[in-house]
Here is the input.
Amino acid sequence: MTDQIVRPDGTGFHLAGGELSVTDPDARTAHSTPPVDVSVTAGLFGNADVDLTLASWSRTRTDDPDSVQPEEGRLVLPLRTQPVMLNSLPSKVRVQLRTGADHHETDGAWQLALHFRNQAGSSLTWHADLPLEAFGAGWLAPLADLLTIDDAQAVAQSSSSPTLTLVHHADDEYYELLVDGQQAGLLVYHLIGSHLSITHTVIEPTYRGRGLSWELVGRALDDIRTRSVTVSNYCAVVSRFLGKNPQYADVLGAPRP
Here is the structure.
């Protein structure tokens, strides 16, 4: 494998929309608003004690009654979202639904999608089939594990060694791993002054199982090593990598000249 570092311009990922959908065999003829309230909340880095509502829908919503759309056996409800930066979110978000008595609380019947975009044209989608825990007290849903890279194209694994390219989007605050020129993963961080916080590692599902998350983490940490910053880690993937690779332990801690 060969690795390269490219440094393009761009902007960070922010929450730019979302939708809640429910399986409904009568969706094609449905015209009324489903009796459901939904909220997606999370604490922010630096202010974890205060929950921010990232996305929501209310059964009392009346500003756009035609926004509920029947679509091939399901109903789709567009969510109100806040333009929160992905790199400011923790590893889990809380999803909570309350439904009317005539809507079944069933695993997989309800799906939730959140869309993150940047001004450079890249986008990510977070998609979850909601479990029963989402009804009532709420479900603590993993963020990075359910993110996919939109328009990513998988390349069949071959016996030859693929070319890995590490792209550092410094303005966007993330590293991108390309496999033979195709998007395979992201490592997202947040930089405030001279302190860098690693928040999420995302590997496109079609590329999982190839050891690429550690390739991405190792190359990103090699680059971070060259900076005069202190580093904190909030990403479980990076924690596992550091546990197996003690030679990178020096990356966390005091700034390097």
